[in-house]
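Lecture notes, continued. The same structure-token format from the folding unit now serves as the input rather than the output. Read the line below as a description of shape only.
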């Protein structure tokens, strides 16, 4: 019996990753920096603090680097607050399935709490989540398992009987490290053989994850 479901937010529940991705180039250009190829792909699932650490290292502690990262966040937040982001296919159906079975849910995201709460409010789904773990809560970033372990603790669930739903490789690595069941629903990054091995399953959509749960093939 599944004890809990723990959701990532960006790219999993809402189609936000293209918004975040498109904000990098103008932010770096504003500070006279060139965005290094392949750098952004490393950031999916990471907290802002960890991203800042990586960018600072990659740009040899250039004093413009961290302000550029923070400007990227500002651009992305302004875009999402102004226009929102659409729900990913199957989200409502999966949540309805979990609610019907009294399976508690949490969000464990690298995004700031204000952004997480804004998306949940606009999506009219705040009542479905008993806990929110956000990027500004100070926990180690994925691929460390801490955000998922904290979510499970707040839901009074054991990791081995809790399902993590993720779109990023770092999220799947974190779920595996914490001993969770995990379903990857790829968004911007396709699963590698390593990630397919770590994940309990790879789903084509959240609706696919719902169907696997209904068939007793996941948790």
């Amino acid at each position: 019996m599944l004890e809990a479901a723990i959701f990532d937010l960006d790219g999993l529940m809402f189609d936000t990753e293209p918004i975040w991705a498109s904000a990098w180039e103008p932010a770096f250009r504003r500070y006279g920096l060139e965005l290094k190829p392949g750098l952004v792909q490393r950031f999916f699932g990471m907290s802002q603090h960890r991203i800042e650490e990586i960018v600072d290292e990659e740009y040899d502690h250039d004093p413009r680097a961290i302000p550029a990262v923070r400007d990227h966040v500002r651009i992305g937040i302004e875009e999402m607050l102004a226009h929102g982001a659409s729900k990913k296919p199957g989200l409502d159906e999966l949540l309805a399935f979990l609610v019907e079975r009294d399976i508690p849910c949490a969000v464990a995201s690298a995004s700031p709490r204000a952004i997480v709460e804004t998306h949940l409010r606009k999506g009219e789904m705040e009542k479905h989540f008993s806990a929110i773990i956000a990027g500004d809560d100070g926990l180690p970033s994925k691929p460390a398992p801490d955000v998922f372990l904290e979510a499970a603790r707040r839901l009074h669930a054991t990791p081995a009987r809790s399902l993590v739903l993720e779109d990023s490789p770092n999220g799947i690595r974190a779920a595996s490290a914490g001993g969770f069941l995990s379903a990857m629903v790829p968004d911007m990054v396709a699963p590698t053989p390593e990630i397919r091995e770590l994940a309990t399953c790879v789903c084509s959509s959240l609706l696919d994850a719902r169907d696997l749960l209904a068939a007793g093939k996941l948790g």
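Point for the exam: The chain has two domains: 4-14+85-214, 17-83.
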